[in-house]
Design brief:
This protein has 113 residues and is an all-alpha fold. It is 60% helix and 0% strand. It is globular.
């Protein structure tokens, strides 16, 4: 939960620097858990807007942590757009996001550990 709060509270729209694998994937995990819970609440209460509001609120930090994660493996944030290529693009992006960090400092900053 600490990683999720770090992304949402401390780095809401921070597109600079680097994010470790753990930071990215813990944010992803908690984001999915919260989205599923909110979707369930929407269904139980017969609402339709809670999930949309949540998605809009976490869209910017989600993009920001994705860009910082790509910076950590030495790629530009524009590589997020590779997911627009059907099937192959999404697989390639997942491989990049799951790759080990570049050791030491790179053009995007110091190693996040």
């Amino acid at each position: 939960m600490e990683w999720y709060l770090k992304v949402v509270r401390d780095n809401y729209a921070n597109f600079n620097g680097r994010a470790s694998r753990q930071e990215y994937w813990m944010f992803f995990l908690f984001n999915m858990i919260f989205a599923i819970v909110i979707m369930g609440i929407d269904i139980i209460l017969g609402l339709w807007f809670l999930n949309i509001i949540y998605s809009l609120v976490v869209m910017i930090p989600g993009i920001a942590v994705g860009i910082r994660r790509l910076h950590d493996v030495g790629k530009s944030g524009w590589f997020l757009l590779i997911s627009l290529i059907p099937l192959v693009g999404v697989i390639w992006l997942i491989v990049l996001l799951a790759s080990k960090s570049n050791p030491g400092e790179n053009q995007y900053g110091a190693e996040p550990k």
